[in-house]
Structures are given as C-alpha cells and as structure tokens.
Amino acid sequence: MESRSRLSIICSHLLPQSPSPTSRLSSSLTSSASINDAAGDTRNHQLDCVFCRIVRGESPAFKLYEDETCLCILDTSPVSPGHSLIIPKSHFSCLEATPPSVVAAMCSKVPSIGNAIMKANGSDSFNLLVNNGAAAGQVIFHTHIHIIPRKARDCLWTTESLRKRPLNFDQEASQIVSRVREQLSSISPDDEKGSGI
Q1: Where does the signal peptide begin and end (predicted)?
Q2: What is the pTM (predicted TM-score) of this model?
C-alpha cells in the first residue's frame, strides 16, 4: 500500500494532466511492489522509477538536453516557467549514492542549460536546488538537480521574506565546524577521486 501511495504522489508530480496515472500502473505496481518488498533489488526500483522510464523512452518528457551521462527535462509541476531537472541516466537514489564523476557531469551542464533557460524565458537568475532525502523534500528517489528560473521580486520562496539572523561566532558554530571537518577527514582517498575535494 505504501508503494502505491508513493507512486501516486510521484505520478501526480510528473504527469499532473494525465488521466488517472495510477490506473495505468496499478497492475505493474502490484507485481513489482511484491518483488521490491521481497528482494529489495535495486534493479526493480529502476523499473518503477519514473525518471528511469523517461531515460528508457517509456514515459513522455520534454527533453531540453541529453548526453551519454545525463538528461535535462522540464519539470511537469514547475514553480516557475522553465523549471527543469537534470537527471543522471543511471539510477542513483540520492546524492551520496551518486558517483562524484556523475555529479560533476551533471553540474558541468548547469551554466549552459541555466543560461539557455534564462534567455528563453526572460528571467535574470536561477536557483540551483537538490532535495536530498525525504526530510529535505525529495519525492522521486533518483538523484536530480532543479534549475528554477527567477525574476526580480517573484517571491517564489516564503523564506525570502523572513528576516535572516547573522551567524553567531560562538561555541555552537565552532562545534559544527569541528564535527564537519572530522567527517571530511574520515573520507578515504579513494572516495575523493573525481570529487574535487
């Protein structure tokens, strides 16, 4: 039941105008959900993943850019005109599961794609966003980067009207810095290859 609910949310995010996306997928959901529950096989997650279906040409999408590593498509529930997603062609559930070389390939496309989107829709800026994990708002568990075109005073984010607090140079900030540095120092040289760290 949880798999069916999650797929329904994903389908409504990607195919909002589509007539009852869950009815089309209900038969495949039943069989694949039991396989996923029993085996936890990553390959089956790829079969159910809407982005993987787009990469395989099994689901429609407005493609803006494609190369051997990644694909850029329009988000079907955009927060602004031109809101796009850069996705890797291989399935990785989250940013930390994505190899640094793939993240680098995706990020290297941001300036050219972002500039093309801005010129095409007359915006003057864009936000680059990754929702990494459920608590951060990730809905589709296939790594993706949002490019969200912006115009002056469009007030897309409610946080833009919030008063910001300056960083306090206190013990709490020092402890955070120490803990992050400790985590970074535990990264092995093999983990760093291709990451630019």
Answers
A1: none
A2: 0.70
